[in-house]
Amino acid sequence: MREAAYKEIVSGAKDILYGNLKIGYATWAKENYKYISPSRHHYPHQWFWDSCFHAIIASHFDLDLAKNEIRNLLKGQRADGFIPHIIFWRREIAWREILRSLESYPTLFPRTSQLIQPPVIAQGVEAIYQKDHDSAFLHEMLPKLVAFYNWLYFNRDPDKDGLISIIAPYESGLDQSPSYDPVFGMYDSSVVVPTLVGRLVTFRNMVTNYNLERILSADYFNVEDVLVNSIYLKNLQVLTKLLHEIDCEETARHFYYLYTKGKESLIKKCYDKKEAFFFDLYGKDEKAAKVKTIKGLMPLILDLPEAIAKDLVKKHLSNKDEFDLPYPIPSVAANEPAFIPDYKTVFREPVLWRGPTWISTNWFIVKGLKEHGFNEEAEKIVERSLALVQKSGFREYFNPFSGEGYGAKNFSWSTLVVDMIASK
Ligand code: GLC
Question: What domains can be seen in the chain, in order of their start residue?
Answer without folding.
Answer: 2-422 (1.50.10.10)
